[in-house]
Amino acid sequence: MVNESNFCVAGYVATVPVPGLTRSGVPTLQMRVAWTPRKREQGTGNWADEPACFATVKCYRKLAENAFMSVHKGEPVLVTGSLRIREYDAKDGSRRTNVDVTASSIGHDLTRGVASFRRLPKAAETAAVEDSDDHPEWARSAIARATGSAQDDNAGAAEASSELAEDAVGEPVAAPF
Predict the structure, then answer these.
(1) 70: which of 52, 60, 77, 121 lies 20 to 30 Å off by Cα?
(2) Domain ranges in the chain?
(3) Which fold does the domain 1-111 belong to in CATH?
């Protein structure tokens, strides 16, 4: 989009990601991401933390579904998206500013740890799950896919998925380079 401000930040997930739906039924996910800028003091050469910064991150559609299964409170993430700054009046009457990011992509920050990526089988995407009032239907389905409790008509895909899960247990494997 023309004149859209792109924003990228490395930080940590500060709140538990909350799934939801728009009025038209589009999956959403909202969470807060925090980062702490640091600067070097000229007199001593030491690094000093500045006040922490927070942004509300909103995800839609497939990104919301995948982030719900992949990103958890406390994990280091990279978020890219469009930035909006809005002011509002708080309940106590004070004027506040909120930073909102509509995410176009989210991933784990691999400078702070390791991660494993896997695609979900198409059959698992439409799996049925037992009813729960805690999350929208799309979130329950995502949970079922992530935990392996979704019923899959393709036995080969389920078997391959369980083999991948077994391989993921244990220490990370060193890269061949």
Answers:
(1) 52
(2) 1-111, 118-165
(3) OB fold (Dihydrolipoamide Acetyltransferase, E2P) (2.40.50)
Determine how many CB atoms are found less than 10 A away from the CB of residue 71. Answer: 21
pLDDT in tens, 134-147: 566 766 666 666 55
Torsion angle of C-alpha atoms 108, 117, 72, 59, degrees rounded to 10: 80
d(CA 160, CA 71): 23
Task: Print the SS3 string covering 86-112.
Answer: EEEECCCCCEEEEEEEEEEEEEECCCC
Spatial separation of the C-alpha atoms in residues 72 and 13, rounded to whole Å? 7
Report residue 31's pLDDT band, with 50, 70 and 90 as the boundaries: very high
Q: To the nearest 10°, the Cα dihedral for 119, 125, 130, 135?
A: 80
